[in-house]
Design goal:
globular; Arc Repressor Mutant, subunit A; 11 helices; 222 residues; Tetracycline Repressor, domain 2; homodimer
């Protein structure tokens, strides 16, 4: 394994361990030592990648919107929906994404700037909404930045409610319900009629992405 | 002061102190001792009211939806809006309400049942929506329970985003924006046209309630 590959792998090992520790203990109570022990790395290795606990937490926060290559859709509203439902699906299935979202909502993590994920998700949403607007998919009055903020904020609460009530079991249904309440105020009826917001959409988009990745890896290098 | 009044006052002193301690330290890290010291009460007095830290936390959780006598409105949609914007206003101005909401969203408070406030707020919302439905204010397809859940969940996230981004300064604007995105999917246009969702609605409802309470206290006992 090349030196660089090993470094990338160590970084991922640390982030995975940190995700577990933050999720169990909360940001404030978690210590660098607990992360080192769980990751099975030396203190030197950790500090090589992350100069402080805050930097490790930022690494975990940033993972939630990494590796998210949503397939291009002709309808940018559908692409926005797919981004949202895929995130919900990853929240149910990927501990790293879950830890990132929990840190974002951890109000005791006072020395951590938790606004980053909110701001970045809003930018992602706004960009897709602007494209949708440019191709005439949105109602005339829509302010894309305002709608992006509403979507990001309300999603954060919907996932929190689903976690508190039943540990995410009903998350796909709640997200689909949220979108069915918000999109009619934003999207023109003819586009709305052909957008897929069914509950299993997230799982299907996820499977599609895995399938693409597998075919990409299997392709001959030219 | 009657014995009972004193007991009620001590209970409130403990809850106020607990709200501060939970907000600063988080549920998991907070101790009964810190609450006793800040409240200036004896251990015996605290245990008389609350047998454990969990019970104190539940007391704080429950305060967020107490003392909330929303004035009766002819339009039940307006009454629902007023309930939401008043809660947002109290979240900005009342440390006890803020502590309750923070505890509700504290994912590290693992031995605490945090579903209560979500469930109760959904019931409050559902009840008002059912009344609105009975008097023909809602669109035909609306499931009141589903809409109540969407409102409660999305509100929780909107407030969390506002807290993370700017310590609640833009909360009234964000809540008004949320309602403008959701209500058109739920309420018939003629009712929607006369519902007040402007940003200062919460402050005005709050002032109205204070005014009523003052006049009530000033009224002669008959």
């Amino acid at each position: 394994m090349a030196k660089q590959d090993r470094a990338i792998r160590t970084r991922q090992t640390i982030l995975s361990a940190a995700a577990k520790v933050f999720e169990e203990r909360g940001y404030q109570a978690a210590t660098i030592n607990e992360i080192i022990v769980l990751a099975g790395v030396t203190k030197g290795a950790l500090y090589f990648h992350f100069p402080s606990k805050e930097h490790v937490a930022e690494g975990v926060l940033n993972e939630q919107d990494q590796n998210l290559p949503i397939p291009d859709r002709a309808s940018k509203v559908q692409q926005l929906v797919d981004t949202v439902v895929l995130h919900a699906h990853r929240l149910q299935t990927d501990p790293m994404v879950r830890a990132g979202v929990r840190l974002t909502l951890d109000q005791q993590a006072q020395d951590l700037d938790r606004s980053g994920p909110f701001v970045r998700w809003s930018e992602v949403g706004n960009e897709l909404l602007e494209k949708a607007q440019a191709q005439g998919e949105l109602l005339d009055h829509v302010s894309t930045a305002e709608t992006a903020d509403v979507l990001v904020g309300s999603f954060a609460g919907i996932q929190s409610m689903s976690q508190a009530v039943c540990e995410y079991q009903d998350l796909p249904g709640r997200v689909s319900s949220l979108l069915r309440h918000i999109l009619p105020s934003v999207v023109i009826p003819s586009v709305l009629a052909s957008v897929d917001i069914t509950e299993d959409r997230g799982a299907r988009v996820h499977a599609e992405l895995l399938d693409r990745a597998a075919r990409h890896e299997a392709a001959p290098v030219s």
